[in-house]
């Protein structure tokens, strides 16, 4: 090997274009706050598998944060009648839910005996207490004022949920858009109590049915309907994967937060977020 080649091999990495000195500039870790994120795992048990349990739930919360960011923007776009940006955001939320479906595959590598070793250290903590998941349910229309009591320990989160409880959901905004587009929506549906869960309404079903019967005439609303169906379908898969993973790991034991565990989760599978969009298929 020549002396020239030796000299080139010993040159610093800047020769390849990589910046090496970050004393005066922002690095990758600085931008992402990696010191805070990667130091946020604090296993309480001596069991090796608890790290999986913690990271699974922390990453899920980050994805839910992104879904809320997108859905809040979707609602604003629908209110403004700007459908194209809303379509992109709704598609993104559905893909995030797909990501969360596959995340259960990782947690499912935890066996019942492994979970049993860490369960005593979890206390009464439970995903049921996730204020972000509660906000996600609320913004999609599955509201329940009684559940705010779970979040009284966290006043900022409680305030967010209280506000969301009284705000029209993404689907409510879609129904109001139908009305602004000339469809005859019952006044009581447009002026309903926003704190209540979504209930099927015949005037809304008739409007969506008219959209599906003439998609070329109502293409924007037709595409909105399909994006909402995609979203709910992905949400159902996420819920189903959740219940099957829980059953695989703990069977029918009571959940750490006091819920009936699998029995409670199975009831949630029956919740329909956008009822008219599924009911109209039979009528087409």
Describe the structure.
With 284 residues, the protein is mainly alpha-helical. The protein is 62% helix and 0% strand. The chain is built from 14 helices and no strands. Helix 7 runs parallel beside helix 8. The protein is globular and about 60 Å long. The termini are far apart. The model has no long low-confidence stretch (mean pLDDT 89).
Please provide a brief summary of the model.
This protein has 284 residues and is mainly α. Helices cover 62% and strands 0% of the residues.
Main attributes of the structure:
mainly alpha; 14 helices
Q: Give average pLDDT, whole number.
A: 89
Strand content: under 5%
Structural class: mainly alpha
Count every beta strand, where a strand is a DSSP E run of 2 or more residues. 0
Helix content: 55-70%
The helix-strand sequence is HHHHHHHHHHHHHH
Number of helices: 14
State the low-pLDDT regions, or none. none
């Amino acid at each position: 090997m020549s002396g020239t080649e030796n000299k080139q091999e010993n040159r610093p990495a800047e020769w390849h274009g990589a910046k090496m000195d970050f004393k005066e500039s922002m690095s990758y870790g600085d931008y992402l706050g990696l010191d805070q994120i990667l130091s946020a795992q604090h296993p309480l048990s001596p069991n090796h598998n608890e790290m999986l349990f913690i990271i699974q739930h922390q990453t899920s919360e980050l994805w839910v944060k992104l879904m809320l960011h997108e859905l809040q923007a979707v609602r604003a776009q629908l209110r403004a009648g700007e459908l194209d940006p809303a379509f992109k955001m709704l598609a993104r939320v559905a893909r995030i839910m797909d990501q969360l479906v596959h995340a259960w595959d990782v947690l499912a590598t935890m066996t019942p005996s492994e979970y049993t070793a860490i369960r005593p250290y979890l206390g009464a903590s439970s995903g049921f207490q996730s204020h972000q998941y509660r906000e996600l349910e609320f913004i999609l229309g599955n509201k329940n004022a009684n559940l705010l009591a779970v979040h009284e320990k966290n006043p900022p989160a409680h305030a967010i949920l209280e506000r969301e409880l009284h705000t029209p959901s993404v689907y409510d905004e879609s129904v109001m858009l139908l009305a602004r587009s000339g469809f005859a929506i019952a006044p009581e549906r447009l002026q309903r109590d926003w704190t209540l869960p979504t209930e099927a309404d015949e005037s809304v079903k008739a409007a969506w049915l008219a959209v599906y019967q003439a998609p070329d005439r109502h293409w924007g609303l037709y595409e909105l309907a399909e994006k909402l169906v995609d979203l709910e379908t992905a949400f159902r898969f996420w819920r189903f994967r959740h219940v099957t993973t829980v059953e695989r790991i703990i069977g029918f034991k009571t959940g750490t937060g006091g819920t009936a565990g699998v029995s409670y989760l199975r009831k949630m599978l029956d919740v329909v977020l956008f009822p008219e969009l599924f009911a109209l298929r039979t009528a087409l």
